[in-house]
Amino acid sequence: MQRFKKRSLINAPAQAVFNWHKRPEAVADLTPPWEPVTLQRRTGSIEEEGSEVVLRLRPLSPFLPWVYLDWLARHEGYVENPPTFEFTDRQIRGPFAYWCHTHRVIPNNNNTCWLEDDITYQVPLGFLGQWFGGWYVRQKLNRMFAYRHAVTQQSFDPQPTQTH
After folding, report:
1. Are 114 and 3 in contact (CB under 8 A)?
2. How far is residue 162's CA from residue 84's CA, in Å, rounded to a whole number?
3. What is the DSSP letter of 162?
4. d(C-alpha 54, C-alpha 38), whole Å
5. 39 falls in which pLDDT band (50, 70, 90)?
6. Which of 25, 58, 90, 144 is surrounded by the fewest CB atoms within 10 Å?
């Protein structure tokens, strides 16, 4: 198993950041424009244990534009009880041999919080998959979560601070 963790300080109260992530449009807002992902189906919301989301990843190859993969994730472990704000997406079917992603918002003080994404995953094909594709997955995760954390911060602080 591999582990990826991204943590950023967000200039907003924890409750506000968690509420922002609970919105139905948060999935689309947090999807980088370079990722060919579309929301196919949603049952319930992240607050509902066992609710699901299906994301379509396509195309898998420029030579096979009609071939796609649906990623089914189930929501679980929802907690909104300050100071704990979190929920987990667990892959039921998708591109990984295993995927468990816990989203956390941790209060820092009344006006700031830590946004944390903690992912445990395993690429398919065991050792061979890790040897051939592990670096690629790590690179994609770094880029994707840098984008997601920046989008979250910009949602609460849309005007970048100018320095002189």
Report:
1. no
2. 33
3. P
4. 9
5. confident
6. 25
Report which residue type is found at 105: V
DSSP 90-126: EEEESSSSEEEEEEEEEESSSS-EEEEEEEEEE-TTH
Could you tell me the two tokens for 13?
A: 């109260």
pTM, entire model: 0.87
- Radius of gyration from C-alpha coordinates of the chain: 17
Residue 76 near residue 101, CB atoms below 8 Å: no
Q: What is the DSSP letter of 32?
A: -
pLDDT given at position 163: 44
The tokens describing 51, both together, are 């609710």
Topology (CATH level 3) of domain 2-156: Alpha-D-Glucose-1,6-Bisphosphate; Chain A, domain 4 (3.30.530)
**67, two tokens:** 């071939």
Q: Which of 108, 107, 52, 118 is nearest to 85 (CA)?
A: 107
Residue range 119-146, pLDDT digits in tens: 999 987 676 666 666 678 889 899 999 9
Q: Spell out the domain ranges in the chain.
A: 2-156
Q: Does position 54 have pLDDT exceeding 90, yes or no?
A: yes
Distances (CA, A) of 86 to 34, 102, 130, 141: 27, 7, 29, 20
